[in-house]
TrEMBL record:
GO MF annotation list: ATP binding; ATP hydrolysis activity
Domain ABC transporter: 2-233
Native species: Biomaibacter acetigenes
Protein name per UniProt: ABC transporter ATP-binding protein
Keyword check for RNA-binding: no
Transmembrane segments: none
Domain of life: Bacteria
PANTHER family (UniProt xref): ALIPHATIC SULFONATES IMPORT ATP-BINDING PROTEIN SSUB (PTHR42788:SF13), TAURINE IMPORT ATP-BINDING PROTEIN-RELATED (PTHR42788)
Gene3D superfamilies from the UniProt entry: P-loop containing nucleotide triphosphate hydrolases
Length: 246
């Protein structure tokens, strides 16, 4: 379980102090998928970085499994919008990177990486470099690198935003398939209301800057597309956001 208590984040510049987040209180239950939407500048990425231990909150605290977050954790994986792949490493080497840093047993490492390559249909591209891959394939590699670490918490910052509509929908379905095989807690940031409703069991709505939690919607129609429940929830989220964004 992830607990975010009274978290505020302020960025200091030469001329001003900018409050990105204000008094965030949120609990992420184990093995559930949360999506987060809000206007640009609402602090969505800041919250991801804070939960990941990459950014220290100005006020408040974050704890995972009862332990206060003081820095990056081996139980947490982060996937960023730009994939974060190393262009001079092959697909296989990119996926293995975190395991190598952890000094995983070489035999076990090969088994884990081979399993990830199979699950994500990347085996034919194991020795390709990122520059030889499509956007969807790069995203699979980024997801594979995260899953190789067997995280209990997966944080995703607009992971599909650079993909075309066809690949974006495919990756959404693949993410749900992977989660069903290995349930973990996922928090995914997106600008797409439709994506948030399709993927999120709970949908978090942030206000304009400084970001505050305006609503958390339980979504009974998650994982369903072109259903009455899906469209009703999309309209509900859109209407709620329109109240907060002037």
């Amino acid at each position: 379980m992830v607990k975010i208590e009274n978290v505020s984040v302020v960025y200091s510049t030469k001329n001003a102090r900018v409050k990105a987040l204000e008094n965030i209180n949120l609990t992420l239950e184990d093995h559930k998928i949360y999506t987060m939407v809000g206007p640009s500048g609402s602090g969505k990425t800041t919250l991801i970085y804070t939960i990941a231990g990459l950014l220290k909150p100005t006020e408040g605290s974050v704890s995972i499994k009862g332990k206060k977050v003081e820095g990056p954790s081996r139980d947490t994986a982060v996937i960023l919008q730009d994939f974060g792949l190393f262009p001079w490493k092959t697909v296989e080497q990119n996926i293995a990177l975190g395991l190598i840093i952890r000094k995983e047993n070489p035999d076990k490492l090969r088994v884990i990486v081979g399993d990830i390559l199979d699950k994500l249909s990347l085996k034919p591209f194991a020795h390709h470099y990122p520059g030889q891959l499509s956007g969807g394939q790069k995203q699979r590699v980024a997801i594979g690198r995260a899953l190789a670490l067997s995280p209990s918490l997966l944080l995703m910052d607009e992971p599909f935003s650079s993909l075309d509509a066809f690949n974006r929908e495919n990756m959404q379905h693949e993410l749900l398939d992977l989660w069903r095989q290995n349930p973990m807690t996922i928090l995914l940031v997106t600008h797409s209301i439709e994506e948030a409703v399709f993927l999120g069991q709970k949908i978090i709505i942030l206000s304009p800057s400084p970001g505050k939690i305006m609503d958390i919607i339980s979504n009974e129609g998650w994982g369903l597309r072109q259903s009455v429940r899906h469209y009703k929830t999309v309209n509900l989220v859109r209407n709620k956001m329109s109240r907060y964004v002037k």
